[in-house]
Specification:
Distance between the termini: 60 Å
CATH topology: Four Helix Bundle (Hemerythrin (Met), subunit A)
Number of domains: 1
Strand content: under 5%
Helix content: 55-70%
CATH class: Mainly Alpha
Radius of gyration: 18 Å
CATH superfamily: Hemerythrin-like
């Protein structure tokens, strides 16, 4: 009889390349990576509650960035927001399949997100971070501080 070893998926390392220079965005991204790694380290049959919390975080994470995009005139029909919508839709579908007994799907989704996130952060999110800096947007207060005359402000 052959035993099959259960391998723990490799975590996503938080690297200096993932720091984008916006403290609130960086904190949110670091929390995303931490939650993703907790999920990857959890046995498949125990992941669903953590995965739901991870989805909640991701919904707010993406909504936060999209508020900032709208508040600062970032293109309303941009592929960044479209990518967020696709990821969230896929994450929700994984919940449905997991509830029906596919206990390995959350791990596969987490592995896919660990592969996806660094490129998303260093391209799309880096572009947003630069845009926020260019327009003088303070993500902590969610106000434009570098150009008071513009009157840009996020409405919650």
């Amino acid at each position: 009889m052959t035993q099959t070893a259960t391998l723990t998926p490799a975590p996503l390392n938080w690297t200096p390349e993932l720091f984008l220079g916006d403290a609130r965005m960086d904190d949110t991204h670091e929390e995303f990576v931490t939650l993703l790694n907790q999920l990857l380290a959890t046995p498949a049959d125990q992941q669903l509650p953590l995965y739901r919390a991870f989805i909640d975080h991701t919904v707010e994470h993406f909504a936060q960035e999209e508020r900032w995009m709208l508040a600062t005139g970032f293109s309303a029909d941009n592929c960044h927001a479209d990518e967020h919508a696709t990821i969230l839709e896929t994450m929700q579908a994984v919940v449905q399949h997991s509830e029906q007994g596919d206990t390995e799907l959350i791990t596969r989704m987490a592995e896919a997100l660990a592969e996806w996130f660094p490129l998303h952060a260093t391209s799309k999110d880096a572009g947003l971070a630069q845009h926020l800096k260019n327009v003088g947007f303070d993500s902590g207060t969610e106000r434009v501080v570098g150009n008071q005359a513009s009157g840009l402000q996020v409405k919650r």
